[in-house]
Write a structure and sequence with these properties.
The complex is a heterodimer of chains A (about 200) and B (about 180).
Chain A: H1 2-18, E1 26-27, E2 35-38, H2 50-62, E3 68-72, E4 84-89, E5 95-112, E6 115-128, E7 133-134, E8 143-144, H3 145-156, E9 172-173, H4 185-195
Parallel strand pairs in A: 1-6, 2-3, 2-4, 4-6, 7-8
Antiparallel strand pairs in A: 5-6
Helix pairs in contact in A: 2-3
Chain B: H1 2-17, E1 22-25, H2 29-35, E2 38-51, E3 57-70, E4 78-84, E5 86-88, E6 91-95, E7 106-114, E8 117-120, E9 127-132, E10 138-141, E11 147-150, E12 159-161, H3 162-174
Parallel strand pairs in B: 1-11
Antiparallel strand pairs in B: 2-3, 2-7, 3-4, 5-6, 7-8, 7-9, 9-10, 10-12
Helix pairs in contact in B: 2-3
The chains are: A alpha/beta (about 200), B alpha+beta (about 180).
């Protein structure tokens, strides 16, 4: 009996290790809830025009199928206002972007694979307007706004970090690295684990 | 069988609660000391939710200072700074990647000022727990797992001798 228990534990462990992505236990239950409004005021003053900043963030949003752009808003910051807001602000000398889980409904859940996942109600994302944001390979000591956006919105769909180097959800990336703005297979597998076959 | 059940439940629970990240610039220790306006060793005395100047929910941390490594704060002073997120007026905000505090814990914090209010540098990046090595020397440990780090040119440091931090802080302020 002990052998069977041990084998079952090993199998369970290997199954969990085979997936390099991780989940954070929350998801959007409906695409209509997962609409983000943009506040483009107070954007970064260096290096990119306001429209370039907006389109870079939009491309980050577009990477994840359930998310959509609901237009503009004057709301900002991490506040419970019923609106998922993407905005700019002062975040200090080293913080590039912040994802805030404003509200989660823990009375509503789904089981996806072996994971119990609760319902997101509101998420706000904020970028630091003091950084040297870039969008091209001519970058010097800058940061890929599209890539950071894809990563932050990856958290906003319910993904944690991946252990696969090169994946968008890998926890570190070099300055001027523009490779993470498109999803790797591991990112797609993680998304599918949250949004496919749940009950 | 009970052990296997407990293991399985623990794995499921872990999958459900693991948090996600905020993106910060990784800076090596010397640079992080330069960027910190205040560096303090102390014990968490009080934690209270509040609104910051922008109307966001934050948690005010009162630290009983044991040692000021940078910023001119004296021993025994009570120094207040903020952590993003918290629970207030029926609203709970979780800023992913923010440092988590417990009453009474001994910490070293690297703080920066944003609009006149102090926050840890790079959220969880600037908060260290202080423990002891087997030989008794104090060591600082931080949890970087919830942070997405950009620009790391070295393996991110999550453990560092307290005495070396004191030495770096003293040296960097001397120049």
């Amino acid at each position: 009996m002990k052998k069977i228990v041990l084998m079952a534990a090993v199998l369970a462990l290997s199954a969990s290790l085979a997936s390099a992505y991780s989940l954070n236990g929350r998801k959007w239950f409906s695409s209509s809830d997962a609409t983000f409004r943009f506040n483009n005021s107070n954007g970064a003053t260096c290096c990119l025009s306001a429209s370039a900043q907006s389109s870079a963030i939009q491309s980050g949003l577009n990477a994840w199928a359930i998310l959509s752009n609901g237009g503009s808003t004057n709301l900002s910051g991490a506040k419970r206002d019923g609106v998922n807001v993407v905005s700019w602000g002062k975040l200090g000398g080293t913080t590039l972007g912040v994802t805030n889980y404003i509200a989660t409904d823990s009375s509503q859940s789904q089981v996806c694979g072996n994971n119990l996942i609760y319902r997101f109600q509101e998420v706000d994302v904020r970028f630091n307007n003091a950084f040297n944001w870039q969008t091209s390979s001519t970058c010097t000591n800058g940061f890929d706004l599209s890539g950071v956006s894809v990563h932050e919105f990856g958290h906003a769909v319910g993904l944690g970090h991946s252990s696969v180097p090169g994946a968008t959800m890998y926890p570190s990336v070099a300055a001027c690295d523009f490779s993470v703005s498109s999803l790797a297979n591991d990112d797609k597998a993680g998304y599918s684990a949250i949004y496919s076959g749940c009950r | 069988m009970k052990k296997a059940l407990v293991l399985a439940l623990a794995m499921v629970a872990l999958g459900a609660i693991s948090a996600s990240a905020t993106t910060v610039l990784y800076v090596p220790m010397n640079k992080s000391v330069d960027l910190s306006e205040v560096i303090l060793l102390g014990h968490v005395l009080r934690m209270e939710p509040a609104y910051n100047a922008e109307g966001e929910i934050v948690t005010r941390i009162d630290l009983l200072v044991e040692e000021g490594l940078k910023g001119g704060v004296e021993r025994s002073a009570i120094f207040s700074f903020f952590a993003r997120g918290g629970s207030l007026d029926g609203v709970h905000v979780e800023t992913v990647g923010e440092a988590k505090y417990r009453l009474g814990e001994r910490v070293l914090v690297q703080l920066e000022s944003i609009d006149g209010e102090y926050y840890t540098l790079g959220l969880a990046f600037g908060k260290w727990n202080v423990a002891q090595e087997r030989d008794g020397r104090p060591v600082m440990i931080r949890n970087l797992s919830d942070l997405h780090m950009v620009g790391a040119e070295e393996t991110p440091v999550d453990k560092f001798p307290l005495q070396r931090m004191r030495d770096i802080a003293a040296l960097r302020q001397a120049f």
